[in-house]
């Protein structure tokens, strides 16, 4: 299906209007007039792009403002922006593979943080024996903040069971939790408190935050090391107009996050729970386990996200709630789900 303008709460296909519950614009920012005004003003100041290396002799204050905001929002010592969430993940892996004896992954993780020869954290429902032995190793655990097909943050309590002979680095991809979960959408990074050497956040900013780019957040020492990697120094940075907007839009983010929470609470108050629907009022995705429901929604002129993550996979059917959906949209959606 091809549309001619940004798919917000309503989209038009073949001159027919549909309610839209797809995409990843959780805070509804791409069409938010106040947010757009900030972006336009910052483009007028910083230009449409800046193709220079971040290590060039001329430094832009936009990066200082935006990255300071992100570190404060996330609750990390430091943060650095890059041109995409995918690059954020690959930069972190490039750095860590030189100092990690063994990688482990929790659940099915996004390709941004996948690496060859990584081992599963759990084998047949039990903690991988390699995590329990007495051999000293530097290990890195890779996880999504909220796993695919789930509506709650990853359960990281297993970390407490890992042998104290392991030096643990934790990498969390928060592309679908930053801006959504936690106070004002701070994500889960600041709430992770386990006996580990280091925790690292990577995330796209093109989902909830509405701007093309990515972020890496961690302690100051690690962020400085990232800035020294050749892949970072030889690449252009995130659009400075967008980075400046991150800082300027802090109040808009709070307002839109509150609107999203109100929409989720409203759905929770009217949705009849059943085994074919996976929903949690703290998260803006509703997973449909029944193909019949997908067809029923389309018959009622409601389009949801439906796609395959990989060639062989079953279609992923999910309803995406945003801050822009109106009560009447939610009434119509839930009316179909409750039938």
Overview of the molecule:
It contains nine helices and 15 strands. With 339 residues, the chain is α/β, with parallel strands linked by helices. The strands form three sheets. The chain has a seven-stranded mixed β-sheet, with helices on both faces. A six-stranded mixed β-sheet has the order 1-2-14-15-13-12. The longest helix is centred in the C-terminal third of the chain and has 21 residues, at 250-270.
Uncertain parts: none
Note the run of SSEs as H and E.
Answer: EEHHEHEEEEEEEEHHHHEEHEEH
Beta-strand segment tally:
15
If helices are DSSP runs of H or I spanning 4 or more residues, what is the number of helices?
9
Strand percentage? 15-25%
Compile the SSE list and pairings.
Blueprint: E1 10-13, E2 16-21, H1 33-46, H2 61-74, E3 78-82, H3 85-96, E4 102-105, E5 119-120, E6 122-123, E7 126-127, E8 137-144, E9 166-173, E10 198-204, E11 214-218, H4 220-227, H5 230-233, H6 240-248, H7 250-270, E12 277-278, E13 285-288, H8 291-299, E14 302-307, E15 316-320, H9 327-337
Parallel strand pairs: 2-14, 4-5, 4-8, 8-9, 9-10
Antiparallel strand pairs: 1-2, 3-11, 6-7, 10-11, 12-13, 13-15, 14-15
């Amino acid at each position: 299906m091809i549309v001619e303008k940004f798919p917000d709460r309503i989209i038009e296909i073949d001159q027919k209007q549909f309610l839209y519950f797809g995409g990843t614009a959780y805070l509804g920012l791409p069409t938010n007039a106040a947010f757009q005004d900030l972006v336009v003003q910052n483009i007028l100041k910083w230009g449409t792009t800046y193709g220079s290396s971040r290590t060039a002799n001329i430094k832009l204050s936009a990066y200082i403002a935006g990255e300071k905001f992100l570190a404060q929002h996330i609750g990390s010592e430091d943060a650095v922006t890059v041109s995409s969430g995918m690059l954020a993940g690959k930069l972190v892996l490039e750095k860590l593979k030189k100092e990690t004896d063994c990688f482990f992954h929790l659940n099915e993780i996004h390709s941004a943080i996948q690496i060859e020869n990584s081992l599963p954290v759990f084998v047949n429902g039990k903690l991988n024996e390699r995590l329990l032995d007495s051999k000293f190793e530097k290990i890195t655990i890779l996880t999504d903040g909220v796993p695919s097909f789930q509506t709650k943050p990853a359960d990281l309590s297993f970390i407490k069971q890992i042998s104290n002979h392991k030096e643990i680095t934790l990498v969390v991809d928060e592309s679908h939790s930053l801006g959504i979960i936690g106070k004002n959408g701070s994500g889960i990074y600041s709430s992770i408190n386990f006996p580990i050497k280091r925790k690292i956040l990577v995330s796209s900013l093109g989902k909830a935050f509405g701007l093309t780019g990515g972020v890496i957040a961690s302690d100051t020492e690690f962020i400085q090391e990232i800035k020294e990697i050749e892949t970072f120094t030889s690449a252009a940075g995130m659009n400075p107009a967008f980075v400046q907007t991150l800082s300027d839009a802090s109040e808009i983010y709070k307002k839109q996050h509150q609107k999203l929470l109100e929409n989720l609470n409203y759905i929770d108050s009217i949705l009849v729970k059943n085994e074919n629907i996976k929903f949690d009022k703290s998260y803006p995705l509703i997973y449909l386990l029944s193909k019949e429901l997908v067809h029923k929604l389309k018959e009622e002129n409601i389009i949801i996200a439906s796609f395959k993550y990989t060639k062989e996979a079953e279609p992923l059917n999910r309803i995406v709630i945003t801050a822009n959906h109106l009560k009447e949209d939610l009434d119509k959606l839930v009316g179909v789900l409750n039938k």
